[in-house]
Structures are given as C-alpha cells and as structure tokens.
Structure prediction request, 328 residues.
Amino acid sequence: MGAFEESAATTVGSRLVTMLQQSIMPVERPFAELGHQLGVSEMTVLQEVYKLEAQGAIRRFGAVFEGRRLGYASTLCAVAVPEGELEQAAAIVVPLTGVTHCYSRSNKLNLWFTLSAEADRLGESFARLSELFSPYRLYSMPALRTFKIAAVFGGARGNRRVIPTAAVAAGTFSERERAVVRCLQGELPLVAEPFHSVAKEVGIEVGELLRVCQEWLACGVIRRMGLILHHRQAGMSANAMCAWLVEAAQVSRAGEIAAASPLVSHCYERAAFDIFPYNLYAMIHAPTREAVEAALRGITEEAGLTPGVALWTGREFKKTSPAYFITE
Prediction:
C-alpha cells in the first residue's frame, strides 16, 4: 500500500481525499467549508492535508486553469531520436516555460512533450522547436476533441469532463487579473486562510479576490481548485498513453467509453500520422502494469475497437502545471 492509499484509509475516508483534489471552494476558510460538507472539523481536514504533505503526495495546491479561456492553445509533440541522443533532445525543451510535461515513451516516437503558448504564437513556437530538433522531424498532434480531463487520484474518481470541440473565445484580462492567475497557478499555502496571501501579493481585498475566483469557476476559466498530487505517490505507479485507430463515425462513442473508465485521466481525439496511425488517445493510470493492460483491453472490447497500443512512460524529464502570463 502506497503512502497515498494509507492516508485515504483514515476515518475521514477517500471521499475527503477526492474532494481535496477537486472541490476546494474560493472562500475565506476553504478547508472549514469542505469539512462542513463532510461533517468533520476544519482541523480534521487540515490534518489529512498535512499527512499527505508529509508523505510527499502533494505536488502543489492551487488552481487548474482552462488555457483556452485565457487565450492559450496547446499541442502534444513527439519526435523520434536515437536513444543515445534522448537526454540531449529533452534538454532542448525542459527549460521552456511553455513545456509542462516531457517523457520518454516506449515507441519509435520516443520523446513526447506538451507545448502551450498564446494561441496566436503557438505555431511560431512549434516552428522554432522544429528547427532545433532538425534533422529529426517534430510532430504536432493538437487535440481535435477533448473527452476528459480529470487527473484525480485515489478513492472515488471525479466525473469526466467533456469539453466542446469548438475553441472557446478568450477573454480580455487586466494586468491585475493576470497577476491573480500567476499567483493561483503557483503554490498556495496549506493554511486555514490560503487566499489571504494571494490578495496581499496582488494588492486587492480578499473579498474581491474570492469574487473573481468564484466567477472564473462558474464560467470555466478555472477548471478546479485543490490539491494536485504526484500520481506515483498516489499509488498509481504504472501508467501508459494508450491509443487506437478509430473510424470517424465511431470516435464519439469510443471516446465516451474510454472517458468513463475511472483509470483514465485524459482522453482526446487527435490527428493520425503514418508514423503513428492512431487518433484516439487515453492516459491510463493504475497501481500495476497488469491493471493498465486490463483497462486497455476493457475499453477496446467495450468499444469494439481494433486492439490499440500502450506507450509506457519511461523517464520523466519534466512535469509541471501550465504557466500563463509568464514571460519566457
């Protein structure tokens, strides 16, 4: 049993652990509010938080933003490089603010990373990276449709989040609002009144900050607020990016089936390439490799798909949350 699983087995239960990841509300005392919903004290909730922190299970505490609502776009990138050049290739992208995840995976395309930038600059950013990776071809695989984004681990998994295919129009954010984003995408303090430090840093009243956060949650600028956990410390030590080639008419149904799996954290439709002829992607996390393989088979059988592939995660070169309104 991993540290996270041990923590989830406390008397507070796995429901609290799940809610800590996805149900923190922008109020003055969010842990007290969460405790009220569960019928326990604020101190009980904070004690659970501190246990997770001591076990190294918490990556950060803050907001998870919907980048498109902030005027950003992103794409999944992949390149095939000789194994002996893998570290050198990763070193090109790891320092970049716009790169949030970078892994080696078990495929001819062996280096994968996500790239985000302001929507009107993403093409330019990709073009610059393509030149740096030359003579190896860098592939861009933007999401055509998002079926699920729900990286919530342990206990009951959160409901899947289906996002419309059409791009969301970006709003106009003042410099003060941008400062709020920069603070909330970082690490909030694990204290009873975590939003007070943000309000002080930005230079606004706490009530005004909370009002803005509540509006952003309601309109989808913020996807969720809560703890973001290390999945390996969360007991999910095996994970793979799984992919299938699905006929166009079947993608919606197959995507919904994959997204319904509690072991799937992300699910997208992407364009297929000759070198990687798959168009439905799902990240599967589980305690064991056998459980990942079982989930892959289950989705394949239920959706009536041709057997897919599992790209096992090798080395993690970088894993951070997206950073918005930051100068590179």
User: Anything to note?
Assistant: Residues 3-12, 155-170 have pLDDT under 50 and may be disordered. The two ends are 41 Å apart (CA to CA). The longest strand covers residues 309-319. DSSP finds eleven helices and eleven strands in the chain.
